[in-house]
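Sharing a chain and its predicted structure for anyone who wants a worked example. Both blocks are below, sequence first, tokens second.
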Amino acid sequence: MPKVVFSVWHDTVVDNRTKRLDEIADVPAKDFPYVVGNNEPRAFVGWDGFIVCDPSVNMVELLRAYFADVQGVASCGQCFPCRVGTRVVAEILKRIVNGRGTSEDIAKLENLAKHIKSNSKCQVGQTTPVPLALALEHYREEFVKQVESPKKIERVKLVSHLTAPCTQGCPAHLDIPRYVEYIKNYRFLDSLEVIRSREILAGCLGRVCVRPCEFHCRRGLVDEPIGIRPLKRHVADYEVFHNLVPGYRQGPKRSGKVAIVGAGPAGLACGHRLARFGYDVTIYEALPVAGGMGAVGIPAYRLPRDILNREIDIIKETGVKIVYNTRIGKNFSFDDLFDKERADVVFVGVGAHLPQSMGVEGEDKGYEGFVWGVDYLRELNLGRPIRAGEKLVVVGGGNVAMDCVRCSLRYGFKEVNLVYRRSRAEMPADQEEIKAAEEEGVNFNFLVNPTRLVTNDGKVVGVELIKMELGEPDASGRRRPVPKAGSEFVMECDTVIPAIGQRCDLSFLGESSGLKISRHNTIEADPIIGKTSRQNVFAGGDCVTGPATFVEALAIGNRSATAIDKYLSGKTVEPDELDVLEYVMTKVKVYWDKEPIKAVRGLTRRTFAHLDPKESIKTFDEVENVYLTRDAVLEARRCFRCYRVAGFLM
């Protein structure tokens, strides 16, 4: 591990310049990425300072290279201080490293750093001067020495990357500031094209994404995050409302056939990108519909089926073939994909469709009125008959539990109770979903946990619960629920639905697949490109990570497609530099929740209409409405355009 010679980041200074390298403690600087791909950076420079690991690094040349890249990748040119100021800084630094600097140049750089930071409109201009100002403070002698003893400094080249807090919060690393800025300028189709470059299922994600980007929005440190998800929906719906189609087609034909197991978001994204590359792609799906949990897990009131099916049709238009009602391991074996179907590569993107056991007495007896949450939602979403009762208990605190309780109200249950072993504060479900369930009339019962099913003549008539209290935090960071002895009581009901988690069924792989399976019953695969222990098999989504999100599955599907293209082209299968940098930047923590921000409050987040809860429980029609154009533009204007430029000296 490299030593930290000097670092200044988040206002914390570590100065080991007077020590020999063998005297420096092997303590990593906070948030510093020590490995980029297979290399160890000599230095890192970015929006909040810099970190030096090699004492031979010349700070003047490091800053020269940094500002040269700022000009190339970041400045939008819409305000004078950033557009002109950063260019002048780059020119002065270039003059100094070429041996033509003067003492006045140092003073000019100091003044420019202050002026650009104070007067720029967006974060490019407000952050790129920060490392310059800090270098002039902590490495001033290098600037003075170069001016007084002028000689040409050997050039270095940085590996630079443009990112943003919201972009790094997004598993697909979508260029959110760019698509939001297009909306601000009424360029809705341009915005949609930016989104689809990484998220082909834009209309779906505009409705069901759990929006990690919004939790990394710096606007939220001032008042409220901008509405990134509803803005995405706005531009996707704009295309629908205007009867437009993107017109994606298969690329020029390439040699190679790819078989994909599972038509969920991972498989669909992978197939779409590979078809655009020109490959022959066939997706094998066990269900009669495509979309994975988007089709059989997420209710129509959150994700209308016409939106999902339209986006699947867009993917199929690129030449992707989907074979339905075909379960690998039943209709034919995993090895048959290579032997009978003549696939050169297989991508496994199956979801987590099996329930996690509660471990309570009676759950394995087949009682009438007991149904697992994933099975309940699947049957309901496929339009198959489901026994409806009067009183329902759903066990769990995640999004699947929320979907179960909200669906049950619409399906005709009169009394719907949710029981959760922790408090509301610890619930992992999306807060918007929790709030909607409360408004629609779901009864929440916290700090209780089931112990056994109460039955009569093979039918559920109740569930025994025990009261809990919160102890010390567990591995998840949440306080661990502890049973209170002697506090058992019975809640009457005729239906119990556990929704406490899901797992994958990998039995279809058989014993000869050659894939390594983890102790969690997931496929072991590279987290960036999905490469497995078998060179012609890639995997991603729930079958690798365990139950995760729609956008996470879609993101790995995209990256795996690029890796598969390399494999079929005879190239070395490794992550692209961009993918590596995006992965590395998640370790740098672009979003800092303690960051002091000086900004004017008062531009409140725009809202959109919802169905009245009294009416919404009568229908599976979509609950949320879309932003009106005026509101979408006003919401986009709330964006701070928080781009960050990172530079690695390798």
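Comments welcome. The chain has four domains: 6-163, 166-246+591-636, 257-353+504-574, 355-502.
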